[in-house]
Amino acid sequence: MRQALVIVDMQEIFFNHPQYFLFHHELLVTNINDLIKQAHLKNIPVLFIQHTDPNEESALFEGKEDWQLHKNLLVSNSDKIIKKSKWDAFYQTELLDYLKSHDIEQLIFAGAQTEFCLDTTIRAAFSLGFQKNLLFNKTHSTLDGAVLPAKDIIHHHQAIWNNRFLTVMDGEISL
């Protein structure tokens, strides 16, 4: 089964400002880099999804420092970067066409934020026919919310996703 690693919104905004630090942000980068290394070794395409706000005043406007992919990610010249402007990485982007043209059948998800762009993209992928997807524990994160702390948001979403929209893999991160 041909796979692709899809990394959602791992941008500098989550690392430049303490109020936006993702839960366990340093471990998150380490774990995502483990996935990237393995994907590169196995010739699995790596796709970075980059939220791009059309509003010039936004911190995530294209070209601004906070908009950049996080500097510690192991981005290679062979990796694909896809810009999106909505929570769904498939909406008005080239993502679906890319996956179809490369005969991708299984997506491995990682990134941020758990309950927003990652959740929306995971569910959209399932609805578009990608129904054997994976997510490794501790490869996605979010911020504390008004109602729930980040760790509970993460746990809640993994419980909903697992064996419905994808399979949550516990233990060693190994592709």
List keywords for this structure.
single chain, globular, six-stranded parallel beta sheet, Rossmann fold, alpha/beta, 5 helices, 175 residues
Describe this structure in words.
With 175 residues, the chain is an alpha/beta fold. It has one domain: Rossmann fold (3-Layer(aba) Sandwich). Helices cover 31% and strands 20% of the residues. It has a six-stranded parallel sheet, with helices on both faces. α4 packs parallel to α5 (150-161). This is Cysteine hydrolase family protein. Residues 4-131 form the Isochorismatase-like domain.
CATH superfamily: Isochorismatase-like
- Order of adjacent strands in the largest pleated sheet: 3-2-1-4-5-6
Oligomer: single chain
The helix fraction, in percent, is 25-40%
Number of domains: 1
Instruction: Find the structural class using helix and strand composition.
Output: alpha/beta
Q: Which CATH-level-2 architecture?
A: 3-Layer(aba) Sandwich
Query: Any idea of the CATH topology?
Result: Rossmann fold
Q: What pattern of helices and strands is seen along the backbone?
A: EHHEEHEHEHE
The percentage of residues in β strands lies in 15-25%
- Give me the Rg, rounded: 15 Å
Quick synopsis:
This protein is α/β, with parallel strands linked by helices and 175 residues long. It has helices spanning 13-16, 25-41, 95-101, 114-127, 150-161; strands at residues 3-8, 46-51, 80-84, 106-112, 134-141, 167-169. The chain has 5 helices and 6 strands; from the N terminus they run βααββαβαβαβ.
